[in-house]
Structures are given as structure tokens and as C-alpha cells.
Write a structure and sequence with these properties.
CATH topology: TIM Barrel
CATH class: Alpha Beta
Structural class: alpha/beta
Number of domains: 1
Radius of gyration: 17 Å
Largest sheet: 8 strands, parallel
Strand content: 15-25%
Shape: globular
Helix content: 25-40%
Order of helices and strands: EHEHEHEHEHEHEHEHH
Distance between the termini: 14 Å
CATH superfamily: Metal-dependent hydrolases
CATH architecture: Alpha-Beta Barrel
Number of strands: 8
Strand order of the largest sheet: 1-2-3-4-5-6-7-8
Number of helices: 9
Length: 256
């Protein structure tokens, strides 16, 4: 059984068949899912799903795209949401200089504020970083609390970057994007990283693996790309599933 440590089932692309799809997860080999929040609305939606489905947990935070919408009122609402018994992390939060949907100075300020919130509440952190690695690392350096309590989700850096974050105690998480033709660097990292720092995710509905690239992604696709990673690491798919399950449960402090 696999743990999808990062998905977005609040997305409107699941509106037509969300309940049917989620009800099929156990049969498809998926036993745990974390629904990652990107703003107050999606974080609240994740909470509602977690209350409905025993195998779903949720994180809450403002994605860098939505950082410009953060204010003192929304932060207080997020703080209360993160006290929920199934709220397992602050995230996804971070920096995205590819799209710049929020001004970069706003992204940096909101990232730091949410790292403070994670430290206040004793929660792990889900980090989104795209084309902003040095700035992200500079901000993280002010919050040593998060070094052993954070994951770089959908990690796409090279081995040199991976060594820097691994040396600080971060986790790395990988999607089906490791099956893409241009993903050699990510695949190298996923193969070489210590297995106790490795987690699997889909980022559904995004980043469906080959041969479904470009289509709506969901957690049932983890068993499609996991064999490729297991083979590259020289272990069985069963061991990969077991170890990444253990890692995810430890990281998110899930006791079941």
C-alpha cells in the first residue's frame, strides 16, 4: 500500500467524480493521502475531506501564488484550522519565481510568516520552491526549527542542490514527473537520496506520469511510476512502498 503525501482533491477537476474516486483508493493500493492546502478556501476544503474520509489528512497554508491574499484575518483562521486533529502540516508554502503570481517581496514575507506559524504550532512544513532555490534557502536559514521538519515537495533540483537540503535534515518528495524525458536530474536524486528521506506523491491533478502525461492525475498512478524508481534503487516495489509509508507517517506524525 502507498501513501500519497501530496494531492489536491479540492480541485474542481475532481468535482464530477470525487467521492467515487476517493472511495476506490484502497482497492487501488493507496492507504493514506494528504490533501495540501494552497489558500484558506482549499485548506478548509481539505479539512472537510479529512473529516469525511478516515484515510485523508490535510495541510493548510498559502501557496506563493496566493501569498498576496494573506492578511491578519486569514492567518488567524489558518492558525485555528491547523489545530484540527487531522491537520498534519503547514503548506504548501514557499516561493515561485516561474509564474510570479504574487510579487516576490510579498512571497518572501509570507513564506517567513508561515514558517513562524509552523514553529509556533509545532507543525512540519511542506515547501514549494520553483526557480527560487537560493532565496528559499536564505529564508529557511532563519528558521532552524524547520530543518528536520520540512519536505521539499515535487523536488526538481539536481544532486548538488539535493545534498544541501539533505545535509540540513530535509525530506524530499517525488511525483510521476520522474518519468518525463527531461527529468534525469530528478531521477538521479530520487535514486541516490537516503531512503529514509524519501516520500512519494502525485500533486494530483497535476504531473501525471508517462504514459498519462497531460491528463488528470490521481493517487492511483503512484503504482505506475513506483516500479521505475524501485528498479533504479535496486529494491522491490514492496520495499519502496513500505519504506516511504513509514517515512510519511513519521514525518506527518500519523499514528495509525
Amino acid at each position: 500500500m502507498f501513501f500519497d503525501t501530496h494531492a489536491h482533491y479540492d480541485d474542481e477537476r475532481f468535482d464530477a467524480d470525487r467521492d467515487e474516486l476517493l472511495s476506490s483508493m484502497a482497492e487501488a493500493g493507496i492507504s493514506l493521502i494528504v490533501n495540501a492546502g494552497c489558500n484558506l478556501e482549499t485548506s478548509e476544503a481539505g479539512c472537510k475531506m479529512a473529516e469525511r474520509y478516515p484515510f485523508i489528512y490535510f495541510s493548510a497554508g498559502f501557496h506563493p501564488h496566493d501569498a498576496k491574499a494573506m492578511n491578519s484575518d486569514s492567518v488567524q483562521k489558518m492558525r485555528e484550522l491547523l489545530k484540527h486533529e487531522k491537520a498534519v502540516a503547514v503548506g504548501e508554502i514557499g516561493l515561485d519565481y516561474h509564474y510570479d503570481n504574487s510579487p516576490r517581496d510579498v512571497q518572501r514575507a509570507r513564506f517567513a510568516e508561515q514558517l513562524e506559524l509552523a514553529q509556533e504550532l509545532g507543525k512540519p512544513v511542506i515547501i514549494h520552491e520553483r526557480e527560487a532555490f537560493e532565496d528559499a534557502m536564505n529564508i529557511l536559514s532563519d528558521f532552524p526549527y524547520v530543518y528536520n521538519r520540512s519536505v521539499f515537495h515535487c523536488f526538481s533540483g539536481d544532486w548538488q542542490a539535493a545534498r544541501r537540503v539533505l545535509d540540513l535534515g530535509f525530506m524530499l518528495s517525488f511525483t510521476g514527473a520522474i518519468t518525463f524525458k527531461n527529468a534525469a536530474a530528478s531521477m538521479e536524486v530520487a535514486t541516490r537520496a537516503p531512503i529514509d528521506r524519501l516520500m512519494l506523491e502525485t500533486d494530483a491533478p497535476y504531473l501525471a506520469p508517462v504514459p498519462f502525461r497531460g491528463k488528470r492525475n490521481d493517487s492511483r498512478n503512484i503504482p505506475i511510476y513506483a516500479p521505475r524508481l524501485a528498479a533504479a534503487r535496486g529494491i522491490s516495489v514492496e520495499e519502496l512502498a513500505e519504506r516511504t509509508m513509514e517515512n510519511g507517517k513519521r514525518f506527518f506524525n500519523i499514528k495509525i
